[in-house]
Amino acid sequence: RAEIGKLKTLVPEVDEMLGGGMETQSITETYGEFGSGKSQFTHQLAVNVQLPEEHGGLEKSAIFIDTEDTFRPERIAQMVKGLDGEILADLLRRDLDMGKEDVEEVELGEDLEDLPEETDEVLDDLVDEFLERVHVAKAFNSNHQILLAEEARDMADELEDSEFPVGLLAIDSLTAHFRAEYVGRGNLANRQQKLNKHMHDILRVASLHNAAAVVTNQVQSNPDSMFGDPTKPVGGNILGHTSTFRIYIRKSKKDKRIIKLVDSPNLPDGESVLRITEEGLKP
Ligand code: GTP
Questions:
Q1: Which residues line ligand 1 (CB under 6 A)?
Q2: What's any GO biological process attached to this entry (predicted)?
Q3: pTM of the model
């Protein structure tokens, strides 16, 4: 069994709270209200997973199951271009060194500002490379979503010996279709049974391929409601048993978000702060 890897958010405070990053071979559940930033979090991980380990990634690709049409390629582009200068310079240097462009004769400086003019083109190529390594599948309903998770397993098998095997399986949103389709108490048991199977399929990909799995989940009810607890994720205990990390995201002032680690089996509960910026998640 492969050693457990850590996928970093690259926000040091958050990564520290997570004991070094999101673990492979397990599922991390992020939940929060509408607009709290769950999709932004997931997009950022789809970028970070591709980074070399020394920069907090796993040097692997991502599978992104998109259930609410929230995947935005242009957001990935912004996040790649918004990576820390040192990381970006390293990636560009690697691409330039590989002789992809005829700029071998150009001396590369230590900082991004020192990179040659040709960098713009190479930067666009780099963005394309990142986008190619996010395998996006749109799920039209819950059965389709379940099917896509099963297919994710085949895809991960196929990519296992490639240059970029699967290192992240993201489902955004895990619960939206289930919530919309299985309405009412009478359907609850059935819904939980389906979700449970789905989570085990996801966990299996994560275990077999030493990948991180990240799923997003809405909070149970709207905060104005007198009924239900707005800080409780949908799905209750069933998701609880299969997800190792549960992360509650809530809005704070301006672009700030509070990230709370909840009920982790081997880490203390904690809170940390990040910002959602044009360049992605930042301290
Ligand atoms: P639902 O999917 O609606 O439940 O919400 P979510 O939690 O997935 O929220 P999402 O990740 O879509 O976050 C939306 C928030 O992220 C917005 O309110 C913005 O604050 C921020 N955001 C999204 N896109 C951008 C962007 O391109 N630039 C900046 N600066 N912020 C963005």
A1: 32, 34-40, 70, 75, 218, 276-278
A2: DNA recombination
A3: 0.90
